[in-house]
Amino acid sequence: MVSTKQFDYLTERVRSGFSDSEKVFMGQIYSPMDDGGMMFISAESQEIEGLKVFLKAVQKPRGRIQEKWSIKILAICMTM
Predict the structure, then answer these.
(1) What torsion, rounded to 10 degrees, do the Cα atoms 10, 34, 36, 27 define?
(2) In whole angstroms, what is the distance from residue 58 CA to residue 63 CA?
(3) How far apart are CA 38 and CA 63, in angstroms?
(4) What is the pTM (predicted TM-score) of this model?
(5) pLDDT digits (tens, 9 = 90+) for 5-35
(6) Structural domain spans, the chain
(7) Cys bridge to 26: 11, 18, 48, 65, which one at CB 3.0-4.6 A?
(8) What is the dihedral of CA 64, 68, 73, 75, to 10 degrees?
(9) CA-wise closest residue to 24 among 65, 53, 2, 3
(10) Residue 76 has pLDDT above 80, yes or no
């Protein structure tokens, strides 16, 4: 289980992974949270194209976070 702050952080990181041409899928997936005031997003009603877009949006921030931490770890190792 994640806290509200963690959930907000994760969902906004994923939101940043959608390109402009994918905003329609983002709007549908984020509708429960943005339009309904719920504390969840849902890709349940997405067809295969929407699911692929969502997966790509989830993977983009993950890669940036891993890269950021890899750089930090490398910097720490170089100072040892």
Answers:
(1) -100
(2) 9
(3) 27
(4) 0.75
(5) 888 988 999 999 999 999 999 999 999 999 9
(6) 4-78
(7) 18
(8) 140
(9) 53
(10) no
